[in-house]
Amino acid sequence: MTKSPGIIASAVVCIVGSVLTLLMVAAMVFAVPGQSAAVPDIRTVSLVAAVLLVGLAMLGILTAVGLLRLRPWARTSILVFAGIMSTVSLMTGLMMAFIPLPSAPGVDASAIAAIRPMLTGIYAIPFLIGVWWLFQFNTKSTKAAFASGASESARSGRPLGVFVMGWWFLVSGISCVIPAAMRMPALVAGMIWTGWAAMAFYVVFGGLWCYLGAGLLRLDARVRVLTIVALLVVTANALVTSLAPNARDRLVAYEKLVTYGVAPQSMP
Question: Which terminus of the chain is more exposed, N or C, with fewer CB under 10 A?
């Protein structure tokens, strides 16, 4: 059975929302090193929140792909997410609509009151999307479409190990958008790459990993051989990085560069 426009639109919304979440995580983590030392736990809290948001974004992308492939688990995933999102958005929106907003010194009360409709509208958008999904994925036609997708999945015969590895490569590749956007340094063959070189590395590495993941999910024999080669190269890079001269000093320098944005002057 073919996918309805509603299913395709829902998958697009999932992907767009997940990408925006990843960009928000990148901005949040990038801003952490500039925080004041007077709040020592801000980095831990920010990193934990970033990990959770990245997990949600990855789940959103996987769900979108599952929707396009008419997988029953994807329908269940989006229904659960729609229920949680619509409930939380409704409760928060009502709070923004009726609970008095805190006043700020030197700010006109009318200006604060003018913000209320905007805040309420922000939460109305995910609420309406959640309601739309709850309706869309409970119709008879949508249920029938995913039932046909379940039959097709059962006939595909894809080994579980290949399925898991394919998605692992795909999610890992997509995750490279975060260090690329943040211009994080890269540790390659015992050398620390920074700036545009590091960004190019993450883009190429992420693109290759996405290609391998998609190929494994398609059961492409050529990709299987390329995957083995890629894993051997990654293993060799780890060995070179660990066994190279001054390896410990470089690892310490890399950690400080990632954490504080400053490398020691003695770094080779």
Answer: C
